[in-house]
Amino acid sequence: MGKKTRNRATRSEGSEGGNPRRPCPCGSGKRYKACHGAGDDVIVVRPFEGLAAEPDLVAMREFLPSATAALPLREGGPVTLASVLPGASAALVRDSGEILLGMQVQTRSGDLSADLAGALAWARSAEPGSSLPVVGPERRTGERLQDVLEPEVPLEPSVHADFAWWLPGGEPDPEAAAMLERANSVIMPTEAVAAPGVRGAYWVDTGSKGHIRWVRTEDEVTLMAALARLSGRGELELGEGSHYAGSFRAHGLLVPVWDVDREMHSSEWAGPAAEFAKRLDEVLAGLDSEPLTDAEHRAREVLAGKQITLR
After folding, report:
1. Quick one: CA dihedral 107, 109, 112, 113, positive or negative?
2. Is residue 46 part of a domain?
3. Does one domain contain both 59 and 181?
4. 202 within a domain of the structure (yes/no)
5. For 195-251, how does the pLDDT look when each residue is reduced to its tens digit (9 = 90+)?
């Protein structure tokens, strides 16, 4: 093996990165060879680790269609984080000087946290009315979100029913109106499940099913063990009208998913989600003192096979 090839195979974080036939550890769902395996970036599997905002950052990157949140910056003026910006831009500065950063962008960088910090640095010095299509290597400053955000402050995303916030004030011209119509046509109704002890949980109506997707920050092995114990007790569901469907991985975190009754409003799942959070916390606290039984080990294997693909 040549030196360059050998280095490329060993620089990614996580054992999956060096095998071109395995899924890329960045969480894109693509094969490593078709994703970050073609470049020389170090892949940071969990780019938002250490931030209280981590679960909502992952949600905004992966499945919130139209959402905005104020970034809890350590210093500097206000900055709005957006799930997606017009043209999937990495950043834009409005004529008013307002700065917006986009989460859902086209990139092959191995570190989304560094990309966002680079986009922020660009926006702070850009002229009003400018936009940044993509963050290239020349835009990275060496800083990451962990260097510019207050680590203990979570995000408070506002989930919108459409993309009207793209063009604040006034009537859009025909081209902008057509862009908004196209974007709005693909939005799936989505709302946060707001309850004490619940963060990173979102209800979505796909048109054929209702789901609750819940970004969890626990270590995957530990979380799967806890879910297996709840399954063995018959306590894995969120309540009547729900069914545990499986989970998917995103940016180093596991996201359990439940199918839920579409006829129930998202707010009706707040109480059941809070109760589930209490059950899960109790089980997580007892795992060290009470290892899994043989039946629970088998339940964990069954749950591990319930991997779903986010569409």
Report:
1. negative
2. no
3. yes
4. yes
5. 998 999 999 999 889 999 999 999 999 999 999 999 999 999 999 999 999 999 999
